[in-house]
Amino acid sequence: MYSIKQVSAMLDIPTVTLRAWENRYQAVVPNRSSSGYRSYSDQDVEDLRWLKSQVESGMSISHAVRQLRQQREEEASSLTSIMGETGVASAEGYAKMTDQLYQTLFHFQAERANTLIDFGFTMFGYDAMFYHVLVPVLIRVGDAWENGRASVAQEHFMTQLISQRFYQFFHLFPIYPQLPKVLALCPEGEHHQVGLLLFALFLRKNGLEVLYLGANTPLDGVLELIRDQGINMVCTSVTNKALVEKNDHLVDEISSRFPKIRFVLGGKAYEDDSTTRHRKWMMKMPAEEWQSWFEREYLVQ
């Protein structure tokens, strides 16, 4: 929460203007303390930032406030309609949430995006929100960037915000020390990490400790990390077939130093057996079968 002086300094809007917008137009109405001091939320700050940008572009403050209210009404209507009359999530509901979240992120509206995500977890549940909304958004972001419909800044912003929500769940599940300790990474040059992120989260849900390095990871320092952290399993993901040889080299380097380490090699590039020398480590099964794989490998001894 922020005071009116803090908001004024952050947004470069005089306090007298903030009071005028509140009193004359009810543009943003902050909470009040028992002593009468204004207290602005992150959403209030974002709304004021948007109003300022509209005014600076030539729109009147009254018109900007009307537009802001209309946006809020449309968002409320959209959120209500997502679950449908039955109150049960549907493919249409997931698609609506995916599209609304994508558009919000596309326009750098972080606070609204997090509000949508929180709403989705409440309404859909943990697994459904991840697999039916967040993953499709990440895939759509990657496609938009590759096809020139999204800038590098937009792609980074959108991917980072959703990835941070993934990371939050890493700390919610207990770790069972008898299970392998995992290192998860994409080789240098590979920027698509959606599949790896999902698999790492799946392993954490099942009690494995996962050190997640993510996309575009060079070999430098990896061997030392494996040694120092006592890694038992390395998971990699590759979507670009041109990078399979580089990833195979990484596997060779690791296995030559640590012969007992196991690997999981996933991603679209590993769907064809002929692409790699390390066929025994390939993970070609769909996400729906990961649990059965895990139980066969680690729970049935």
Describe this structure in words.
Residues 1-70 form the HTH merR-type domain. Keywords: DNA-binding, Transcription, Transcription regulation. This is Cobalamin B12-binding domain-containing protein. Residues 179-267 form the B12-binding domain. Pfam families: B12-binding, B12-binding_2, MerR_1. With 301 residues, this protein is of the alpha/beta class. It folds into 3 domains: 1-75, Multidrug-efflux Transporter Regulator, Chain: A, Domain 2; 83-172, Methionine synthase domain (Methyltransferase, Methionine Synthase (B12-binding Domains), Chain A, domain 1, Orthogonal Bundle); 174-299, Rossmann fold (3-Layer(aba) Sandwich), CATH 3.40.50. The protein is 56% helix and 10% strand. It is built from 12 helices and 6 strands. Strands 4-3-5-6 form a 4-stranded parallel β-sheet. Strands 1-2 form a two-stranded antiparallel sheet. Helix 5 (91-106) crosses helix 7 (126-146) and helix 7 runs antiparallel to helix 8. The protein is elongated, with a radius of gyration of 24 Å. The termini are far apart.
